[in-house]
Structure prediction request, 369 residues.
Amino acid sequence: ELMRLLVANSSQNYTTMPTTLDDQSLLGVQISLSVVLGILTLATILSNIFVIITIILTRKLHTPANFLIGSLAVTDLLVSILVMPISIVYTVSKSWAFGQIMCDIWLSSDITCCTASILHLCVIALDRYWAITDALEYSKKRTTCRAAIMIAVVWVISICISMPPLFWRQAKAHEELTDCNVNTDKVMYTIYSTFGAFYIPTVLLMILYGRIYVAARSRIFKTPSSSGKRFTTAQLIGGSAGSSLCSINSNSNQDGQLQHGGSPVFMNHVKIKLADSVLERKRICAAREKKATKTLGIILGAFIFCWLPFFVVSLVLPVCKTCWFHPVLFDFFTWLGYLNSLINPVIYTAFNDEFKQAFQKLIRFKRCY
Prediction:
């Protein structure tokens, strides 16, 4: 009888031990996940704050193009403050414990800020496209007021995309809430929101980048103006993402002499020197143009890499009722999208020389002028 009891106890211990180990493993995974997501959130907050402070303290960066970049950093900062911390708790605990009102606020902030971040990339690319294809005319229109209007349009569109779910969630206001998700039963809203927040902006970005790439290459391989054309000075026109465009703007007559007169030998010598200067300026501009276009390409690639999986799943699941998707993988795709708010400021500080120099001065606690 004693042996039977010993065997029973040992078998009980054997069956309960894996459960205890599983609980411990789960706790370890939750702690590790919280730490990783917390570090990601903190890095996103700090990197965007540094971009904002760098633009504010550096007078050279006070341009409409850089104000758009600063507005993007503000938007990404809002994602990291309003959305990501609560998302950490929800992702780790797998249960919503903040109530209906907080759920509505969090969901609205999530959709609005993430959409605004995506649309900011569109207006930055649009600004860059106008700057490279119509440099002289657009330089006159490229004002702070115009940048402010573009930013306002971005936020209006983002709010219009995030508002509809608030109307049909009110019916559940007094029910106990265990999860906080957008109602996927509204298929038309899903199509409206995913296309407005991602698919249409992505197509627009790809078209703009394609045209920017073609225009940049034509400028890089374009030969300097020949004799008889107007050229004596090269004007540098600043563009977004640290880009620059060279436009030749000067005078020479058919005989190779300047309009103000002078000996032909002296004028020819000046013209040769001037041509060398123009060629050197074009080489510098071509190099900066190539780098700026590459930067924009990296931004576009990072954006698609981060957000495409999330929006594909968000569109497919409500439409395909028989499809199943693992919740953990959906959480991973959600956080991959949030990661874009960290990548944006890193790209600008890593690939933009003006931002890099200003950032280095900021690290050394020197005010930039």
